[in-house]
Amino acid sequence: MNGNTWMDEALCWINGERRTLFESMEVIDPSNGERIGNVPLGGAELAEEAVTAAWEAFPAWSSLLPRERACYLTRWAEKILQHKEELAPLLTREQGKPLAESTGELEVAASFVQWYAEEAKRVSGEVLPPYKPNQRITVIRQPVGVAALITPWNYPAAMVTRKAAPALAAGCTVVLKPAKQTPLIAIALFRLLMETGLPAGAANLVTGAASAIGEAWLGDPRVRKVSFTGSTEVGKKLMRQAADQVKRVSLELGGNAPAIVFGDADLERAAAAIADNKFENCGQMCNGINRIYAEETVAEELAERMVAKVKQMRVGPGIRPGIHIGPLIHDSARRNVHRLVSDAVEKGARLRTGGHPLTEGEWAGGSYYAPTVLTGVDESMDLTREEVFGPVAPILSFRTEEEVVDQANQTPYGLAAYLFTRDVARTHRVSEKLEFGMVGVNGTSLSVPQAPFGGIKESGVGREGGRYGLEEFLELKTITAMVD
C-alpha cells in the first residue's frame, strides 16, 4: 500500500465508520508549500456525533476484561510496526521532519501502545484497615468515561498513541481531534486501529475547526476528561472552559528548557546530546533545549564543538535521503524564529553560524531556516524568555552553581531541564533544585513509555507515560461496607 492510498482515505472516523463532509480543508507540505491532501472540515455537529458514539460505546467497552482490551491494543501496535515504512513518508510530507525521524516516531508510537496493552492488566485497588468492627473498606479504580484528546502537530503520531492507548487501556472511550496541520497520520493510525476489530464507537476521530470542536466537547457534560498538548495560551483557555463542569484535565504545554554544562562535564558528550535534542524536528519540541548555560571556563570550547556539529547538518526536504533538518511547520513559525534571532543580535549576541531563512534552490517554497548557534546571549534577549521552537542554540555563560540554578528557574515554564557534570553530588543537588517536571542528567532522552512525562508551573498539569499516564484516565472509588 503506497502513501497515496493512505491520503485517499483521509476521512473522519465516527462509530467505527468512515465519514466525509462536503466542506474540507487543505493539508500543506511545509517543505514546498504544496497541497498534499484534504480532510473534512468538521465542526460542532460532527463533534457531538463523535461524543454520542463514544458515550453509547462506553458501557460495553469499560465492561470488557482488561486482557480483552489489551488484545486490541496489542494488535494495533503490531499493525503500526507492520506499516511504519509506508506511513513514514506520509508523516514526513505533512509535518516536514526527515524520514529517519518519522520512522523513529512511529516506532515510539507503537511502543506506547505496547506498554499500555500490558499496563491495562495491572490496574488494581486496595483493601484498607477498618475503622470500626465488622467494617470492610475497599478502593477501586474505574474509567473516567468519555475522554476528549487534542493532539499537536510536532509529534502527530506519537501523541495520538500516548493519549489514546492509556485511555482505551483504562476502559475509557475516546474522541480525538488532531492538529489541522497534520491530520493525515492520525487518520491513518485510526484506520489501523479500526482494522483490529475495535468495537464501534470506542475510538472516534474528528478533523476540522479547532475552536468549534473544542467548545463542543468542553461544553458537553458527557465528556468527563480532556487531554491536550499544545501552547500554554490555548491550554489556559481550555482549563477555564473545563472548570464550568469540573472536567478532569491533562495539559502538556510550552517549555523553556535550560541545559546546564558545568566545567567538569564531558564536553563532547554534552555537545552531541545538546545538538541532537536542539535540532531534532527542526527544534520544534516542547522539551527541546531553549537556553544553553555553559560555565565560563568551558563556554568557548562548547560553542566551537556545537558550531562544528551544526555545520555538518544538511537542511532540506525531509523526504530526501541524508537530510538532518527539515522545514519549520509554516512560514509564520519561520518569521517568529528570525524575529528572536534578530532581536538577540541587535542586543549584542554573536552569530556563530546560521541566523537566516533559507529560500533559494531546493529550499524554495518551503519554510526552512539555517541551523543557528549564538554566543554572548544574556537574559535581556527575547529568545531566553520565549519558547523559540526552532533550530536555534543560544549559549549563555555563568560562574557559580547558585547563579545558574537561579537563572534557569527564572521562567514561568517548568517542563524539562538538563545538566551535564561528572560530580555525582552536584547531580542530585542541582536536579532537586531545578523547578521542572523532568530533569535529564548527562543525556537528553526523556520521553519513554514507562516514565511520567509532564511539567509544572505554566508547562501544564498531569502526566503522560507509565502507570501515571494510565491513572489520568481512572477515578478512585471508596466502598465502605458493614459486614455482620
Automatic annotation (TrEMBL):
Name under which the protein is recorded: Succinate-semialdehyde dehydrogenase/glutarate-semialdehyde dehydrogenase
A GO MF term: glutarate-semialdehyde dehydrogenase (NADP+) activity
Active site as annotated: E252
Keywords associated with the record: Oxidoreductase
Similarity remark: Belongs to the aldehyde dehydrogenase family.
Keyword Oxidoreductase in record: yes
Residues spanning the membrane: none
Gene3D superfamilies (alphabetical): Aldehyde Dehydrogenase, Chain A, domain 1 (3.40.605.10), Aldehyde Dehydrogenase, Chain A, domain 2 (3.40.309.10)
Occurrences of domain Aldehyde dehydrogenase (ranges): 23-479
E.C. code: 1.2.1.16, 1.2.1.20, 1.2.1.79
Enzyme class: oxidoreductase
InterPro entries reported in the protein's UniProt record: Ald_DH/histidinol_DH, Ald_DH_C, Ald_DH_CS_CYS, Ald_DH_CS_GLU, Ald_DH_N, Aldehyde_DH_dom, Aldehyde_DH_Superfamily
Residue ranges the record marks as coiled coil: none
